Amino acid sequence: MILASNRIGPEGAQALAEALKINSSVRLMILASNRIGPEGAQALAEALKINSSVRDMKLASNRIEPEGAQALAEALKINSSVRDMNLAFNEIGAEGAQALAEALKINSSVRDMNLAFNEIGAEGAQAVADALQRKTSVRDTTADDLDDGAKESNDQVSGRRPFEAPVRLKPLAGALKTNISVTSIKLDDNSIGDEGVKALAEALKTNTSVTSIDLRYNSIGDEGVKALAETLKKNTSVTNINLDDNSIGVEGAKALAEALMTNTSVTSIDLSWNAIGDEGAQALKQVIEEKKKMGFELRIEF
To answer: Region entry Disordered: which residue ranges (predicted)?
Structure first.
């Protein structure tokens, strides 16, 4: 069932929810951008407590807020059929993220959950990290707004707070050390910087499940990428790395080239829009020549 961008609102969501209570054939529900609000989310949550057929529910951009997220969390404690849930752009905040994290500790079916752009803040990130440490079935986590939604005292801070991003990333990185099912890390445009990628690199020294890392637009320099390079000398699970549009220079490129010469798993890396220069490009060229039989792909655009 695909009903995205139809302005169905809370009443429409409630009607669909009633139908779901008796329907046993619908597997996919795409209700993104429908302004269902907390009331609509609550109605759908009640339906999910009964329905056992829906596997994939996409509710992005619906302004469900903390109340809606909390209702869905309660449903997930009971529901055992939903595998994928997209709740991006829903203003769920830390409260909503905490409720969902608690549900994930109990739920045994959800494998993919998207909480991007929800102002979950440090508390929300910590809650998700704690859930990841205990849960072994979640394979993909997306948190595109680690540097948004910070709270200071009791007031929400407006605007981006990039200097806090590395601090918030540390709990998630710590969770990756013990979680063995997450396969994809998407942290593009979070200003995690060198400190953030260092925390991630440390986690990847022991993690064996992550295969794809997206670190575009993160102000990562030579210091951070050198830490990642050291990890790649030992890591054998990561296959795809995107470092597009960072601040990587010649030294960072050389460090990566050295690591890639011994690494046996990475098959694709994007270093477009960095400052690696001719010297850095030359070092990476040697990697391409060495690994061309493996189908190694290097992307560099300026």
So the answer is: 136-160
Lowest mean pLDDT among 24-28, 77-81, 100-104, 142-146: 142-146
Dihedral angle sign, alpha carbons of residues 29, 144, 139, 247 = positive
pLDDT digits (tens, 9 = 90+) for 17-72: 999 999 999 999 999 999 999 999 999 999 999 999 999 999 999 999 999 999 99
> What does residue 276 show for φ and ψ, rounded to 5 degrees?
-75, -20
Residue from 139, 202, 211 nearest 166 by CA: 202
Q: Which domains does the chain have, with CATH numbers?
A: 1-145 (3.80.10.10), 165-302 (3.80.10.10)
Nearest Cα to Cα of residue 32 among 4, 64, 65? 4
Furthest-apart CA pair in the chain: how many Å?
65
How far apart (Å, rounded) are the C-alpha atoms in residues 38 and 90?
10
Q: In 3-state terms, what secondary structure has residue 298?
A: strand
Tokens of 38: 């907390």
Locate all alpha helices (DSSP H) within the chain, ordered by sequence. Answer: 9-22, 37-48, 65-76, 93-106, 121-134, 165-176, 193-204, 222-232, 250-262, 277-291
